[in-house]
Design brief:
Length: 267
Amino acid sequence: MLSTTVPCLLALLASCAPLALAHWTYSQLIVNGEVVGEPWQYVRHHNNSNAPLTNVNATDFRCNVGAQPSETYTVHTGDEVGFAINEHFGHPGIQQAYLSRAPGLAAEYGGECDWARIYSLTTSLANTTASETAGGSVQGGGNNEEEEELTWATHNIQSFRFALPPSTPPGEYLLRAEGLALHAAHKWANAQFYVSCAQIRVIAASGTGVSVGDDELGPLVKIPGVYKGDEPGVLIPVFWSFLTNYTTPGPALWPEGTEEQHVAAQL
Ligand SMILES: *[C@@H]1O[C@H](CO)[C@@H](O)[C@H](O)[C@H]1NC(C)=O
Ligand SMILES: *[C@@H]1O[C@H](CO)[C@@H](O)[C@H](O)[C@H]1NC(C)=O
Ligand SMILES: *[C@@H]1O[C@H](CO)[C@@H](O)[C@H](O)[C@H]1NC(C)=O
Ligand SMILES: *[C@@H]1O[C@H](CO)[C@@H](O)[C@H](O)[C@H]1NC(C)=O
Ligand SMILES: [Cu+2]
């Protein structure tokens, strides 16, 4: 499985084994509990191997370096979607997903239009006191004077899954996986981002009784542009292992009322 990246990994092992082993990429789409297609069949093949991005202002921040159009996979509104992680989420941090509607075909769309944030997997439940805001902040530690360090729901995950909102208007989309590693994020522009874009065609699920296509995505952001690099969740005030609270970056989740997740739904 995921054999196309093996030569890259071996090449990296020679030079920087410990770091390279912690790195990852997203090369396969998951739909309704199954990995669909070969690596890079429905996820845009980029040429950044498993290396992170650190410039939130680069166009490459959108779908990674040299991303080439893939095939487009058809899903239904309300289907569960997600990504397989090659090899695993090897650093402390968070997993998010963004969705952008193509004006026409996903294969012909560069992602320059608007994006909504639709999924966020952050701190683990054990260290979360469930005081969240619409903006997505999580306060950990409770009332104890001795606040607990945070743990991460992404720890070593090899996949993640979530429901594509039933109110997603039919059309073609880029679905963007964004992992954010925080181990160096106490330094300016050292947060590490791991990103890939899948191409999906969303059609209305029949017989669900759910009305579709009447809910526009929002709030909307541009990518790049969604982060400046100095927000609390991207530039963190202390070394990650000393964090006692974490504020997730990004616009409010869509649809309104969607909550951050604290347990990973893996395959
Ligand atoms: C990666 O893709 C970019 C953009 O297409 C290109 O400029 C660059 O040369 C490629 N790098 C490699 C190593 O192929
Ligand atoms: C919270 O995180 C700390 C530091 O990683 C860990 O030692 C502790 O076990 C966690 N708390 C719970 C209840 O799991
Ligand atoms: C990204 O661009 C914004 C707006 O120009 C700027 O404020 C910010 O410092 C830049 N961030 C990085 C990491 O270069
Ligand atoms: C933790 O909370 C403080 C006070 O609300 C805030 O200033 C800081 O940015 C937060 N830290 C993170 C990493 O979100
Ligand atoms: Cu790393």
